[in-house]
Amino acid sequence: MHPVPLAKLAFNNYFTNELFSSAVNNLKNDEHIDYAIKLGMLLKAFVMSFQSSGLTDRNNENIHYIRRPCYEGCPNGTHDDQCQEIYRKRAINAPEIEAMLNNIENIDKTICANGTINVPYILDIDLDYFHYEESLNPQDTSSFYKLIQNASINNYC
Prior knowledge:
The protein is of the alpha/beta class.
């Protein structure tokens, strides 16, 4: 069954525990975020991803995908595989996190201002965000640690 109709079905009947459990168990690939927004449990989601295709908003205007073509400060006009490798190795380095926070601020200044998220948030980090060993040991962890410390809920899966 397609996840959106399943989520709508569960949304319309979510007081039925069996149906709710069945729906939640069938959610995959961040569909839980879409589902939580439709239930009113979350207001918005910002998904930071390396993927430039294959992602969908599931017809949910409150899910915003933050994709950048390359790493912060890249001098190249055209971005290639080498740029992407550098970008992925710097995944949680401060300049990359700060650039993504600036993207969020450009979308909604009530949520993020001056590089700081100023509303309660859930930090959900998928392990497939880390493509290289270097991405686990950034040179500057300050912005990443700030995200972790200020999050209401941390979820690493």
